[in-house]
Specification:
The chain has a three-stranded antiparallel sheet. The model has no long low-confidence stretch (mean pLDDT 87). Helices cover 63% and strands 8% of the residues. The protein folds into two domains: 3-83, Arc Repressor Mutant, subunit A (Orthogonal Bundle); 95-171. By secondary structure, the protein is mainly alpha-helical.
Amino acid sequence: MSVGHALLGLLESGPRHGYDLKRSYDERFGHGRALHYGQVYATLARLLKNGLVAVESEPGAGPDRKRYAITSAGVTDVAAWLTTPEKPEPYLQSALYTKVVLALLTGRDATDLLDTQRAEHLRLMRELTRRKTDGDLADQLICDHALFHLEADLRWLELTAARLDQLAARVRPGSDPLPPARP
C-alpha cells in the first residue's frame, strides 16, 4: 500500500498535524504494523516537495506547529490512485518454493519444512479468526483478506507435499533441471 496516498486521502477531510495523521493511519490501516513517526514526516516532506501538500504553521508558546493540508494536485493524485487497479501479484518467486527446492537439493527433509510451515499458517489463521470475531467491520474485512491468502498458501503446501517425490526427482544432481519460472 502507498503510505503517501493513504496520508493524502486522510488529509482530504481537513488539515492535520503529523502526529494526528499517524494516529489516524494506525487506527485504520496499521493493524499490527504501525507507522514510525520518522516515516510519517519523511513521507510528508516528499509530498510537500512534490506539491501534493502544503504547510500551515500555528504560532504558539513554543516552536511553530505544522499542520499539513492537501493541495488540489494532491486531491487529483489521490483520485487517480484510487481509480487505478492494483496489479495482481502472481508470487512466482515464492520464498516457500525456494526453501522446498533448496531442502531437496541439500538432502534435508522437505516434508518437515512443509509441515512446519503448515503449522505456522494454521496458527496465524487461528489468531486472525479470533481477531475477526472480536473486531469491528474493518478488522473483519482485513482479516478475511489475510485468511483467504493463507488458505491459498495452505492449498499450495498440500499440493507440493503431494508432488514432493516428483519435485525431488527433478532437482537431484544429474536430472533435468526445472525450467526457470516465467514472469
